[in-house]
Amino acid sequence: MRRTAGALIVAAALTPALLLATPAVAAGPASSAPAVTAAAVTDGTPVDEMSEDDLRVAIARILADPDSGRGVKREANKALDGTVEDMRAFLKTGYRLAQAEDDRVAIVRILADPDSGRGVKREANKALDANTPEALRAFLETGYRLAQAEDDRVAIARILADPTISDALRAAAEEAIDGTPEELRYFLEVGRYEVDG
């Protein structure tokens, strides 16, 4: 019983700070949420071979991860309150399903953002329509960044289509349009203002 109390104290101490955390992807187009799998927190030990203490440590790591969303935290805490088999079930399948729930929320937030462009909305809707944990995660890890880059290229092309822009801004936009997703975003958020600033 003492182990359970200790784990719950750690979880209770971490939960208030983490409950309001949202997946890193929702913060902006240049960020990405790392994919943490049950295998990553179990140090390669098969879940069925883990002791009760090892299971609790693995779940505590998930709870301590700042990218864990509300669904993951809720299910992790349920598992900690349950039996050893509940903890194993969480690490085997519950974590993946709870992460998919949190990923869905992150994608809906991206869709609700008025600054999300057509490419982002198209790819976000594809991920939601596929409705698999893998499709949701893939969008947040790579699809969002690439779709944002597509939208950023369109925004830069619109700048280039303006006949009234300065030569310096035109040169900077022409250079940026062939850049990486991060360079595109930087140009739109900062670079274009530095040129004409």
TrEMBL record:
Key words of the record: Signal
Pfam families in alphabetical order: ALF
Signal peptide segment: 1-26
Name of the protein this chain belongs to: ALF repeat-containing protein
Organism, scientific name: Streptomyces viridochromogenes (strain DSM 40736 / JCM 4977 / BCRC 1201 / Tue 494)
